[in-house]
Structures are given as structure tokens and as C-alpha cells.
Amino acid sequence: MRIALIMLAAGNSRRFGSNKLLYEIDGKPMYQHILDKLLAVAQKLEEKESGSLEDHKRQNEESDRRSAGTACTKIKGTELTVVTQYDEIEQEAGLSGVRVYMNPHPDEGISSSLKIGLKANLDADACLFSVSDQPWLTADTIEKLIELLQTSGKGIACVSCQGKLGNPCIFTKKYYEELLAVTGDKGGKSVIRAHKDDTAVLDVGNAKELTDVDRKIDFTN
Known about the structure:
Layout: E1 3-9, E2 24-25, E3 28-29, H1 30-64, E4 79-84, H2 87-95, E5 99-102, H3 110-119, E6 126-131, H4 139-152, E7 156-161, E8 164-172, H5 176-180, H6 189-194, E9 199-203
Parallel strand pairs: 1-4, 1-6, 4-5, 7-9
Antiparallel strand pairs: 2-3, 6-8, 7-8
Helix pairs in contact: 1-4
């Protein structure tokens, strides 16, 4: 399964009083915390897939000794996409080698960024959407969410804490059309609510991981 990782980083930070995504936490901008974790997850997934590809090649080589040249199926890698309206984020994310798309209409809400990221990855089997104002989210949680999707047989996977759904979320290809129909300042939760029976939920014990930083006071909670 090829999974695209999409980081949404185009919010206007109205309640924060300044651009919160550039606000430094522990010595680096808020968005960078999520970007670094997504980069680490992408690298680990690609290493795992490369190992699986080598195993598949060896199996084919053994099979070739008994039959005429069975073709080896290529295992596709993981891609990381950033959607933003900020030049600083575009430049820094670009230096990390990820694909960056500028959102020319951020006032239309998070759905506009979601659709830009999704349209850039329509060939992926599934898309993981993350927001950029959860600096305490861990790479381990992201990895567990991806594993849950792959093992559950469900079409959607999302995180939850104390019964409240949060980000990130993953949607398989069969929900792309519905996601592209979402409008306004809302993401994919309406799609999740419409398909609860096809949603796998990862319970996250530490509520701080799923905290969306909307105000400076959130740093003290």
C-alpha cells in the first residue's frame, strides 16, 4: 500500500494573534516539529518497503530456478507533501526535499488545503492528513495509525483521546471523491462521521499529543 503523507500548514492563526506556525517551541518553529516527525516516518516506511522489496526479489530468484522468469512487483514508496500559504514554510520544507504546494485561497478554510494536497496524490492508495499545530504529536503515534489502517481492513483510520476524534487521519482511495466535495473550514471529519463502521480508531493515552495550539495559553495547559 502506497501512503501519501500530507501536512496542512496554511491556517491564518486568527486566535493566536500572530503566525502560530512560525512560533518557536523548544528552539524551532511549531510546524517544524510535525514536519520532522513526518520526515522520520516517511524514511522508516521507505526503509521497510525497501527491505520488503529485497525479500520479494529473493523469493522471485528462488522461484525462477523452478519456473520461467516470474516478474518482480515493485513496491512503491511513501511521499510527503506540504500545503501552505507562507513563503518561509515553502522555502524550509523545500530544502527537506518534500513537495510543497501554495494555497492561494487559505480564507476558504482547511478544506481548500486538504483538496490541494489530495489532488497532488490521487494516485496514492491512501492519504494521511496532519495539521501543523500539534507540536507534541509523536512519530510513534503516526506509525501506529498507519499500521492500524494496514491491519484493520478498514477504509479510514484516525486518532482519538477520551472519546474525542482528532488528527491525523488516513483515508483510502475510495473516499477521495467525498473528501474533494468537502467545503469550508472543516476537514475530513464529516466523512468519518458518515462512515463510522469503516473507521479504525487509535486511542492515544496522552491528551497533550492531540492538542491543537490555537492560543498562546495552550502552551501552559
